[in-house]
Design goal:
Blueprint (H helix, E strand, L loop, with lengths): L11 E2 L15 E4 H4 L5 E8 L10 E2 L4 E7 L1 E6 L2 E6 L3 E4 L8 E3 L6 E8 L5 E4 L4 E4 L4 E2 L7
Antiparallel strand pairs: 1-2, 2-3, 3-10, 4-11, 5-8, 5-10, 6-7, 6-9, 11-12, 12-13
Length: 149
């Protein structure tokens, strides 16, 4: 069954970050469309970000490419290079192993909706340049010195 009925895909609210880092993404909503379709090589999430919310902590991946496409609303893309608005129809790409931390922030007055598409790699590591957080392919968050949360 190739067609995915989005209304039947469960919504996940928040993030898996340990405290206090989870607070900024506590109201973010994601629907794992790729999982619903049985995809295993890459993920596709339909994401909703309310005003004031962050998509994630600023991060970059060693073995995963990421791509976002804004469907509605307005977001601010924050990278090492500064800030840039993203509106409906805009997109951004984040190649793997490029150490340029990025995330999206909703500074507008309406919920922003966007697609996130990314590869999946068990060998990936994710770096968070602004905070004491690190994660490898197993998904267990640690401090940058390797001690667990």
């Amino acid at each position: 069954m190739p067609k995915i009925h989005v209304t039947n895909v469960p919504q996940r609210r928040g993030s898996g970050y340990p405290a206090p880092f989870a607070l900024v993404a506590k109201d973010r909503v994601k629907q794992a469309l790729g999982d619903a379709g049985g995809l295993t090589d890459f993920g596709v999430n339909l994401s909703q970000l309310p005003p004031g919310g962050w998509s994630s902590q600023r991060h970059w991946h060693t073995r995963e490419d990421e791509f976002v496409y804004v469907l509605s609303g307005e977001l601010v893309l924050v990278t090492d290079g500064g800030e840039e608005p993203l509106r409906a129809g805009d997109c951004a790409a984040f190649p793997k192993n490029l150490p340029d931390g990025h995330h999206l922030v909703n500074r507008g007055s309406e919920v922003a909706v966007y697609l996130e598409i990314g590869t999946r790699s068990a060998e990936d590591a994710c770096h968070y340049p602004d905070i004491d957080l690190y994660v490898e392919g197993d998904g267990a968050f640690t401090h940058k010195d390797g001690t667990p949360y």
